[in-house]
Design goal:
Layout (H helix, E strand, L loop, with lengths): L8 H22 L3 E4 L2 E4 H24 L4 H20 L3 H23 L4 H6 L7 H28 L2 H22 L1 H7 L8
Antiparallel strand pairs: 1-2
Helix pairs in contact: 1-2, 2-3, 3-4, 4-6, 6-7, 6-8
């Protein structure tokens, strides 16, 4: 396994969010265009999705090259972009790409839920080195995160099925990351209550 390497937080953030921001910019510019390839018409959304796939893959590879590590969420997101984005382009149907966030969040909720049923916090296995907490703290955090991911999955389904593509793109680009940030910040009280004391030898 590759050793983790330090990288500028701004570079890491740019590689993680850059493809999504580029997708939003491209969509804003070409959303009303229709492109014809091989006698088949493709909406701007489909063509932009086709361009988004290699950009996402390249960004993920660069992130791995620079850091020597990929989070499970980053890797899974990239795989689903390739699969569902590919289906979107191949079938000329934007349904699959819009379902991607639903699949991601539902899958994470399910995995965390399975861990909880086993009396374990699989979230701790991923984040314990970043946030040292008691077992009780991790179990409480995992329950909250499980419910939060499930709520995001349901919300994404509601938005893309009942609202315009313009609304969904804005929701995906801005609302979902903001919701995740606000949720994490709101857990500061829980973390403070269950934070492990520092090792005196450190």
């Amino acid at each position: 396994m590759s050793e983790k390497r330090a990288v500028s937080p701004l570079v890491k953030l740019g590689l993680e969010l850059g493809p999504v921001v580029l997708f939003f910019i491209a969509y804003s510019r070409w959303k009303d265009e229709v492109f014809t390839f091989g006698g088949t018409d493709y909406s701007g959304f489909i063509v932009i999705t086709a361009g988004f796939i290699p950009i996402m893959v390249l960004s993920t590879l660069l992130l791995w090259k620079l850091t020597g590590h990929l989070s499970r969420m980053q890797l899974m997101s990239t795989i689903l972009v390739v699969v569902f984005g590919g289906l979107t382009v191949w079938l000329n149907d934007d349904t699959f790409f819009k379902m991607k966030p639903t699949i991601i969040y539902a899958l994470f909720a399910a995995l965390l839920g399975i861990g909880l049923l086993r009396g374990e916090s699989w979230l701790a296995a991923v984040m314990e080195g970043m946030v040292p907490m008691t077992h009780e703290g991790w179990m409480a955090m995992t329950k909250r995160m499980c419910g939060f991911f499930f709520a995001l999955a349901v919300l994404n389904e509601v938005v893309w099925r009942t609202m315009s593509t313009d609304t969904w793109v804005s929701f995906k680009t801005f609302a979902l990351p903001l919701a995740l940030f606000v949720f994490i910040m709101s857990q500061s009280g829980l973390i403070a209550r269950h934070k492990l004391p520092k090792d005196p030898g450190q």
